[in-house]
């Protein structure tokens, strides 16, 4: 597999404190890579190091196979666009002026793509409106346009939907999917919104205590998700007895709900329980969520 971003024992220390500790990440070409971890795990530090805003204490990283120890890393890094923490926009300027400014920074001589870029992020009708009067969603989309100005192959987004309303979240989601599909842009996205991330990510890296504890593709993850059947009953005691007698794995959720962790024949179960004076009021098959997977994983890593 071709990795466009890769690290090897990447470490960043502040005095004796490890912000990144021998971190290994592998971002496949064309992926939407979800970086997941609790506050302070090291996500922003990793992103800042990859973007050249901080230097690692030890270890290496490479972008499109070019290591940070090579001279041409500066040139290669131009293939990355990023929004770190919050978009770097000038609030006293219009969307177009912001992009002109960005083009000047990266040294693009003509501004012919600006209209196209504004259209892409749906800000082409904002005219003379200053960025300070934009909604949070519009600011975020302007930030994306600025990050896209250099025509990057990789976009790194640190918490891209923080503070956005549902509509804003959908807009960013659709934009990411469009850019990934139509322009082949690889994404590295850190987010605490796991449900949202699971709608777009093709793979995940779980970061805990300053290192990646697990990398997994969304396909593998789906296969990992344990299917469970949740039933609601009116006689919990009898139901538990039945499950115990039949060696069926279960977990009591409330005084009427039980999760069963095995494929069961629901009709058979309902009839058997009914004969014992226990009625099944409701049942549902449930898949494990990304959130559950994360909590189990990080809980496990903490217990090591
Ligand atoms: P969040 O989800 O809250 O943004 P994060 O995973 O992005 O968290 P980082 O911002 O990368 O975490 O921080 C990792 C650790 O490094 C934190 O404990 C933080 O306090 C520490 N840290 C970051 N920058 C510095 C610095 N300049 N000096 C000292 N410690 C720092």
Explained architecture:
This protein has 304 residues and is α/β, with parallel strands linked by helices. The protein has 2 domains: 3-219, Rossmann fold (3-Layer(aba) Sandwich), CATH 3.40.50.300; 226-287, Alpha-Beta Plaits (2-Layer Sandwich). 36% of the residues lie in helices and 28% in strands. It has 11 helices and 15 strands. A 6-stranded mixed β-sheet has the order 7-8-9-4-10-11, with helices on both faces. β5 and β6 (66-67) form a beta hairpin. α5 (136-148) packs parallel to α6. It is elongated and about 80 Å long. The mean pLDDT is 91. The structure holds adenosine-5'-triphosphate. Adenosine-5'-triphosphate (ATP) is lined by residues 14, 17, 19, 37, 39-45.
Question: What layout of secondary structure does this protein have?
Answer:
Layout: E1 3-14, E2 17-23, E3 26-28, E4 32-36, H1 43-50, E5 58-63, E6 66-67, H2 73-76, E7 80-83, H3 95-106, H4 114-120, H5 136-148, E8 154-158, H6 166-182, E9 186-190, H7 194-200, E10 203-208, E11 211-217, H8 218-224, E12 227-233, H9 236-245, E13 250-252, E14 257-260, H10 266-275, E15 280-287, H11 290-302
Parallel strand pairs: 4-9, 4-10, 7-8, 8-9
Antiparallel strand pairs: 1-2, 1-3, 1-5, 5-6, 10-11, 12-14, 12-15, 13-14
Helix pairs in contact: 5-6
The structure holds adenosine-5'-triphosphate.
From the N-terminal CA to the C-terminal CA, the straight-line distance is: 30 Å
Compressed to H and E, one letter per element, the order equals EEEEHEEHEHHHEHEHEEHEHEEHEH
Assembly status = single chain
Unreliable segments (pLDDT under 50, ≥5 consecutive)? Answer: none
Number of strands: 15
For the record, the count of structural domains works out to 2
| CATH class designation of the largest domain | Alpha Beta
- Indicate the proportion of strand residues: 25-35%
Radius of gyration: 24 Å
CATH architecture of the largest domain: 3-Layer(aba) Sandwich
Task: Report mean pLDDT, rounded to a whole number.
Answer: 91
What structural class do helix, strand and pairing data support? alpha/beta
CATH superfamily of the largest domain: P-loop containing nucleotide triphosphate hydrolases
* Count of runs of 4 or more consecutive helical residues: 11
| Spatial order of strands in the largest sheet | 7-8-9-4-10-11
Report the major sheet.
6 strands, mixed
CATH fold description of the largest domain: Rossmann fold
Shape: elongated
Q: Helical amount among residues, as a percent range? A: 25-40%
Bound molecules: adenosine-5'-triphosphate
